[in-house]
């Protein structure tokens, strides 16, 4: 269990009468990349939210970065997310009033880095993603692809154990999407972070070492996505 950065056992999520996740077991090793694919409504986001400690499953257990989330309260889960988890969402989800640099620096400051350290690390992270020259611009002043690169920098700057990405390329064209995905995987691998990505895009899924298909709240198995997008 310790060598796994994520371990979920019999995770079940109900929203009223809807069973979103119907008993999922999943282990993810350090530095591994896993894609979760499957039809709309099959429970991908709900499962990811449980794995990341954003929601508490109705039943089942999740260990994240070696911590059993079961006994954790909301504040403990939030602290664990800030220190050990990075997120990339479909629409970058950066703070619109802050520059790209400040957006990325914020992730460091939230876990106690000094302002100077945070700015330095944020600058290097943006450089690594190829958007260092745009550091002073706000999210609304750059392209969608550039924004997603900044979001990837923010997700990795504090060297998390796992990055969760929900449709990280959903708002980008195929070429930009695969580039951002490659940069995400490369940066995560450099940082030693595992990646769990939810995607509809076979080209994105194909880039991950392991691909799982969800149907009706269950993981049906590993899928081959060798066909062209
Ligand atoms: N907060 C919620 N309240 C009620 N029902 C929900 C909630 N979140 C998700 N659901 C339901 O749970 C099921 C799984 O939803 P989920 O968002 O996990 O699917 P998904 O696979 O991520 O779909 P998509 O590909 O469209 O993003 C759906 O039937 C959805 O309507
Ligand atoms: Mg979803």
Q: How is this structure best described in words?
A:
The chain is of the alpha/beta class. The protein has a single domain (4-222), classed as P-loop containing nucleotide triphosphate hydrolases (Rossmann fold). It contains 7 helices and 10 strands. The strands form 2 sheets. The protein has a 6-stranded mixed β-sheet, sandwiched between helices. The chain has a 4-stranded antiparallel β-sheet with strand order 2-1-4-5, with helices on one face. α3 (100-109) crosses α4 (115-128), α3 (100-109) packs parallel to α5 (144-156) and α4 packs across α5 (144-156). The longest helix is centred in the last third of the chain and has 18 residues, at 174-191. It is globular. The model has no long low-confidence stretch (mean pLDDT 92). The structure holds adenosine-5'-triphosphate (ATP) and magnesium ion. Residues 15, 18, 20, 38, 40-46 line the site of adenosine-5'-triphosphate.
Helix and strand topology:
Layout: E1 4-15, E2 18-29, E3 33-37, H1 44-51, E4 59-64, E5 67-68, H2 74-84, E6 85-88, H3 100-109, H4 115-128, H5 144-156, E7 162-166, H6 174-191, E8 194-198, H7 202-205, E9 210-215, E10 218-222
Parallel strand pairs: 3-8, 3-9, 6-7, 7-8
Antiparallel strand pairs: 1-2, 1-4, 4-5, 9-10
Helix pairs in contact: 3-4, 3-5, 4-5, 5-6
Strand arrangement in the largest pleated sheet:
6-7-8-3-9-10
Beta-strand share of residues: 25-35%
Nearest-angstrom radius of gyration?
17 Å
What ligands can be seen in this structure?
A: adenosine-5'-triphosphate, magnesium ion
In DSSP terms (H or I, runs of 4 or more residues), the helix count works out at: 7
What is the class in the CATH system? Answer: Alpha Beta
Main β sheet profile: 6 strands, mixed
The name of the CATH topology is: Rossmann fold
Mean pLDDT: 92
User: Roughly what percent helix?
Assistant: 25-40%
N-to-C order of helices and strands: EEEHEEHEHHHEHEHEE
Give the domain tally: 1
**Category by helix and strand content:** alpha/beta
Q: What is the total tally of β strands?
A: 10
Low-confidence stretches: none
Distance between the termini: 35 Å
Shape: globular
- State the CATH superfamily name: P-loop containing nucleotide triphosphate hydrolases
Secondary-structure arrangement, i.e. CATH architecture: 3-Layer(aba) Sandwich
């Amino acid at each position: 269990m310790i060598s796994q950065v994520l371990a979920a056992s019999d995770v079940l999520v109900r929203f009223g009468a809807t069973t979103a996740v119907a008993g999922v077991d999943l282990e993810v090793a350090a530095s591994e990349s896993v894609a979760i694919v499957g039809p709309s409504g099959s429970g991908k986001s709900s499962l990811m939210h449980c794995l990341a400690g954003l929601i508490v499953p109705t039943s089942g257990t999740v260990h994240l970065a070696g911590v059993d989330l079961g006994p954790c309260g909301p504040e403990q889960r939030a602290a664990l997310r800030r220190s050990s988890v990075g997120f990339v969402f479909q629409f970058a989800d950066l703070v619109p009033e802050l520059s790209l640099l400040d957006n990325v620096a914020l992730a460091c400051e939230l876990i106690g880095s000094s302002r100077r350290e945070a700015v330095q690390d944020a600058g290097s992270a943006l450089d690594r993603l190829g958007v260092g020259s745009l550091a002073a611009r706000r999210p609304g002043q750059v392209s969608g692809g550039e924004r997603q690169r900044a979001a990837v920098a923010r997700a990795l700057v504090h060297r998390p154990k796992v990055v969760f990405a929900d449709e990280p390329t959903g708002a980008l064209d195929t070429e930009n999407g695969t580039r951002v995905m490659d940069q995400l995987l490369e940066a995560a691998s450099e940082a030693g972070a595992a990646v769990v990505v939810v995607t509809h895009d076979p080209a994105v899924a194909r880039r991950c070492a392991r691909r799982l298909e969800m149907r009706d709240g269950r993981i049906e198995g590993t899928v081959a996505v060798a066909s062209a997008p």
